[in-house]
Amino acid sequence: MGFGRGKVILLGEHAVVHGCPAIAVGIERGVTAEAETSERDLLRLSPWDLSLAPDLDGDEPLERAFAVALAMYPSRPSLEVNVDVDLPAGAGLGCSAAIGVAVLDAIDEALGLERSRTDLATAALAWEKVFHGNPSGIDNTMSAVGGVALYRKGDALRPLHSNKPLHLVIGYSGEPSSTKEMVASVGRQLENDPKRVNKALEGIEVLVRNAKLAIEAGDHVALGQLLDLNHTILSSLMLCTTKLDEMCQTARRAGALGAKMTGAGGGGCMFALAPKHDEALRLRDLLGRGSFVAEVSA
Ligand code: PMV
């Protein structure tokens, strides 16, 4: 069975596209896939009732990504890959990358090939590029490798360690989010107003560096404050929505140590850091439909 995790970017999204570090976690929820030899190549995605043949020129990114994935295996039989997605799509949890990781993992298994999760992550970047054009690589890396880690484009992943688990509550705004559009929007802002945007990116980098120390020290109060500040900077880049802001406020008022949007923004998900597991469950109920708890050990 192939598996790709969902991910939550704790701090540093968007800045990571421009070479800054970011901190992300792999979560238990994700995508599973199974591949078997068949009469023709086919990708089936069960929750959406989709059956797609690979097509490098297809309209549907999944058709193109499947063709890119299959091209990585030069001599192979025809394959049917059945995918089960347990993540909201277009929601900032790295759904497309998790599908790519799960599909490649499943094909490796069906063909009896072995490779490390790090190599799997590298291979899945080609899949992710079909969806997002210029991805930083954080989604496919966290999806394949998991844990809590500091990621910077071009550097080896740096796992972070702490003796205190992170009690995260992920809330879904129900608003669709397009990574490609949001990344392009920040790119345009950077071009039109480099001084303001570079200042925002530098600010995020400082928060990420402090958050690394806070995670390692188990200081979740400090971490929560850093999350709030990161949310404010992302708002200044016009990446938040009223709904995401409201959800973050609700979580903070109800006792979260901090809360922020996560991923590309413009919709999608936010998350809150809870002080304890039972508090996380309470916050989940407050944040409503589609919310869930992710306990992450660093
Ligand atoms: O919304 P997601 O899960 O696609 O996360 C995107 C993270 C960005 O930093 C906005 C883009 C990237 O490639 O790192």
The radius of gyration over CA amounts to 19 Å
Named CATH topology of the largest domain: Ribosomal Protein S5, domain 2
Number of helices: 9
Estimate the mean pLDDT confidence.
Answer: 96
Structural domains: how many: 2
Small-molecule binders: (3R)-3-hydroxy-3-methyl-5-(phosphonooxy)pentanoic acid
Number of E-state strands:
11
What composes the largest sheet?
A: 7 strands, mixed
Helical fraction = 40-55%
CATH C-level class of the largest domain: Alpha Beta
Instruction: Please state the second-level CATH architecture of the largest domain.
Output: 2-Layer Sandwich
Shape: globular
Cα separation of the termini: 25 Å
SS class: alpha+beta
Order of helices and strands: EEEEHEHHHEEEHHHHEEHE
Given as residue ranges, the uncertain stretches (5+ residues, pLDDT < 50) are: none
Strand content: 15-25%
What can you tell me about this protein's structure?
With 298 residues, the protein is α+β, with helices and mostly antiparallel strands. The chain has two domains: 2-158, Ribosomal Protein S5, domain 2 (2-Layer Sandwich), CATH 3.30.230; 161-296, 2-Layer Sandwich (Alpha-Beta Plaits). The chain has nine helices and eleven strands. It has helices at 61-70, 95-110, 117-132, 138-145, 179-192, 194-217, 220-236, 242-253, 277-287, and strands spanning 2-11, 22-37, 42-45, 50-52, 79-85, 148-151, 158-159, 166-172, 258-262, 269-274, 292-296. Strands 1, 2, 3, 4, 5, 6 and 7 form a seven-stranded mixed β-sheet that branches. A four-stranded antiparallel β-sheet has the order 9-10-8-11. Helix 1 (61-70) runs antiparallel to helix 3 (117-132). It is globular and about 55 Å long. The mean pLDDT is 96. Bound molecules: (3R)-3-hydroxy-3-methyl-5-(phosphonooxy)pentanoic acid (PMV). (3R)-3-hydroxy-3-methyl-5-(phosphonooxy)pentanoic acid is lined by residues 9, 13-14, 16-17, 92-94, 132, 135-136, 138-139, 179, 183, 263-264, 268. The site of (3R)-3-hydroxy-3-methyl-5-(phosphonooxy)pentanoic acid (PMV) has 18 residues, from helix 4 and helix 5.
